[in-house]
Design goal:
homotetramer, mainly alpha, elongated
């Protein structure tokens, strides 16, 4: 996941910064609707980080396992994807 | 996808039945909130059908390609999953 | 919901048409990934119909209750929204 | 939002703690699938915080505006909800 490491880290740090801002908004009793929009924005950044991680995972770990891995290893990768897609498509 | 064909078909027929009911509710000018709950219920059935299809896809098509397919074929499967996960994790 | 009735009906009929197409794809044993993309497209139409219904609901029923309704009526509207938002933000 | 202030703050702090852990996992080059599950868990906490904020908003700010506010104020509240529901039901 080398290539995407920096981008994912940057997204996660952005989300952490947003979350700090959201906590301050709650402490300072800011308007709920504004807080809600900020949470949705932070949520979108997290989801983008997740998307990048999963896409990098497919293109490196999964693809690697399929080209060189044993049947057990590829089957395990498939089961992990089954579980992840189960969560993502809820 | 043989094994799951019946279950997916059943889920999709359930969703189609729900959608017919929803259309009648709109025509009969039923209460919007009740219509909304029915749409969310139909949506949940569709998502479950999608989950079943993707899980069957992983366990048959993708797994099959990895055990017997060419590099081009497995790379194509990976790219399809990258695209799908991009949509699912939005 | 008069103004939006036609648009919602049209969206729901579009979704029903898509669902019929998806059922045929499953019967004809089309490629799972193509079926999945169609389900996601149908899902997006359903969600748009739901969005339109809820927005019309807010601008007619809820707004109406607030301008002319009793405290019981407005409280009931609020509770319905609390429940709906609970489902939508899952 | 007094009553729910503590619960929302607690949820947001939980999410911030999870996010710190996720950043460490990325730095330590942990397995992508495990990172993805942690992001989804953090995402679920954020969504719950959002749900709590919106429900408190409905039961305090919106309900308050409707019982004592001017037409302009209640109309503004409605428009905010229309916009929020537009985002939530995407």
């Amino acid at each position: 996941m080398q290539a995407d490491y920096k981008r994912v880290t940057k997204l996660l740090k952005t989300a952490r910064g947003q979350l700090g801002g959201i906590l301050r908004m709650v402490e300072e009793d800011k308007y709920c609707v504004d807080i809600s929009h900020q949470i949705l924005a932070c949520d979108a950044v997290l989801r983008r980080a997740n998307r990048e991680i999963l896409q990098a995972h497919l293109e490196s770990c999964v693809q690697g396992a399929f080209h060189s891995g044993s049947k057990e290893e590829t089957d395990a990768k498939i089961q992990e994807l089954v579980e992840l897609i189960g969560k993502l498509s809820k």
